[in-house]
# Entry
Amino acid sequence: MSALHHQVGGADLAAPPVVLPDFHHKSKMELPSSVAVATTGTIRPDLTSSSVNCGMALIAVDCEVPDDRAIDTYTRAVRERFPYPTRGTRELSRSEVVKAIKDGSQFSVDRWDAPADDLERIEEGGRIDLERYGGVERLQSELPGFAFQLARYRFGTVGPTNHFVELQRVEEILDPDRAAKLGVAEGQLTIQYHGGGGVFTGEIGRLFFRRKDYPRQIQAVNAALKPWFHLRTARSFAQLRARLSLYFTDGCTPLELASDEGQRLMLATAAAMNYGFAFRTATYAALRKIAAETFGGATGRLVVDSPHNSIYEEPVGDTMAVVHRHNSCRAFPAEMMTPGTTFADTGQAVLLPGTHRTSSYLAVAGDRAADSLYSACHGAGTIVSDLVTRGVSGNDPLGRKTRRYRYDDTAPADAYHFDDLGVNAALDVLVRNGLVKPVARMRPVAVLH
# Structure
């Protein structure tokens, strides 16, 4: 908690910082996870991840849970489509990169035949308007062409670590009316996907400030990109000195939203968000097609796509503020959603994953979501681990298990489940405080990570 106080002390806060369940601090991050911070007139990139638009999606598949042989086939096909290590092939042309940055998820609808109906289930419709911050033309004129060339690679991936593709069975419907509107039913197969925002988001996130999370390969790239981006385009000696002080020293200095530097940062951040939307839409479009080919039936339905690292201008109370979310997802109530969409009826859907050894939950924004800056935690993994370590939580009494796949040729292993005390504890905090309403509970049957 002291790290959070240190980061926001003296900040122009629009409301008290929000700390959500699963609060913890990773050493490579400036700010702890599972928080939301709103400022009145400054942008503070260190209040979110160095790569924006990491997020999760849930897909409802039109079939029941398949047998192990079919799951083997599906997982093998996913690994072939999204190998790790990646092959280093160019997925996009340079002009397509620009389209992804400008059009977000709509680009993937056009390019990879993702269903257009998906757009209403994606935050911001999968696209932030860049014109309000200067337009894509400004970004193209200032950002070195090399950055666009790099963004052609590894477009749409899964990869190991905490990113995953998980097959689940809907075990319990907790809100039948909303579940029906969102398209989930008991016994149904769902696919939960956790992925990043792609190459471009990593570039942009570290171009402006020197972050703690600064991999060597990005350091090497930025050795060329940063001087070109910031110094070549300076319009005066004073601006040159200011940019040297801002972007070539340690730390992340807050930028005034209304300033030229602030608008430039918001333009780059919004462009990175759009690329991330397009990236993730392309990935789960492929996951759905593979599922249809393997399991039979239609390609299924996107239930929700939800970023959990973001910077947006949003209403906070009676004013507009800059809301920074770090490993927390947006949860807007129905009245704040686009009229005529499913979420305008149900409230914005949010995911509360447990682990591959516990249940996960689908929920919607609650009646008091404003109390948490319209935010909910993006998972409960730390709580699950803590309760297991302390002996509070134990094994699943029914002995259920997840078929666990890796990216090598080893045979899948069985991971026996824990009970759901950890994920239920996180959900209970959100529900008791009116932040979310649970809709359905899913249990994992297989995972690739």
